[in-house]
Specification:
The chain is α+β, with helices and mostly antiparallel strands and 232 residues long. The protein has 2 domains: 12-98, DNA polymerase, domain 1, CATH 1.10.150; 109-225, Cytidine Deaminase, domain 2. It is built from 9 helices and 5 strands; from the N terminus they run H-H-H-H-H-H-H-E-E-H-E-H-E-E. Strands 2-1-3-4-5 form a 5-stranded mixed β-sheet, with helices on both faces. The longest helix has 22 residues, at 84-105. The protein is elongated and about 65 Å long.
Length: 232
């Protein structure tokens, strides 16, 4: 009698995936390490491979999750094992998280949601490699009506154009602004150039009765507020 054909063995990582999903469901995300959370995402993107080594490799390459989430797609392309589809999906997850944070701020008085605003600015800007100048446009109730990047520059400089800022504020019907930019150096202390630029924007806003509530400088190590520093 012919010997019964052996059933193919299941990949060793299949049981690991089930256990990890179970831990996430039973104990929540705080019970998992960063690389394990990343594994859960990679399970869906790369279904037929052990992704634990890849998750650890990605975190080693970027240093931590915030740096990874802020990295451009070109940086992900340097990691063997990721293709265009998986890279796009990873970037979409980051965009989804930022969109959710932004939605929490929209049509609400920003001054009453300052902590959430700072969390949003830090998440979207703190780990950028170049300076970006962001404008938060507010209405008479100090509700956020628009959030726009006005300009991007080098690692230590972003040009800002007061006339263009005022033009856009009038187009939107904004009555107040919060200025935000990042320092890729990691030091959130405002430079003299930052102070001069802010004063020029305030001077341009005065004839239109547009208030500059604050100028926030964001970095990896935290943020500084012109208002809190007595610079506005």
């Amino acid at each position: 009698m012919a010997e019964a054909q052996k059933k193919p063995e299941e990949p060793h990582y299949k049981g690991h995936r089930q256990r990890l999903r179970g831990r996430f469901s039973d104990s929540g995300p705080d019970a998992l390490a960063d690389y394990e959370i990343l594994e859960l995402v990679l399970f869906a993107l790369i279904p037929r491979r052990d992704v634990k080594p890849l998750a650890k490799k990605m975190l080693a390459h970027f240093g931590n999750l915030p740096e990874m989430m802020a990295a451009p797609a070109t940086e992900f392309q340097k990691i063997p094992g990721l293709n265009d589809t998986s890279i796009t999906s990873l970037k979409a997850i980051t965009a989804l998280a930022h969109r959710a944070m932004k939605t929490e701020l929209e049509k609400k008085p920003v001054m009453n949601n300052w902590t959430r605003l700072m969390d949003y600015c830090h998440a979207t800007m703190a780990h950028e490699k170049k300076e970006h100048f962001r404008l938060l446009f507010l209405n008479k109730k100090n509700e956020l009506i628009a959030d726009e990047i006005q300009g991007s520059g080098t690692v230590d400089h972003t040009p800002a154009y007061p006339r263009e800022i005022m033009k856009r504020a009038l187009e939107l019907g904004a009555t107040a602004l919060i200025l935000v930019h990042n320092h890729p150096s990691g030091d959130p202390k405002p430079s003299q150039a930052d102070i001069d630029m802010t004063n020029a924007i305030i001077a341009a806003a005065n004839p239109f009765n547009i208030i500059i509530h604050d100028h926030i400088v964001v970095s990896r190590s935290g943020y500084s507020s012109f208002k809190n520093l007595g610079l506005i």
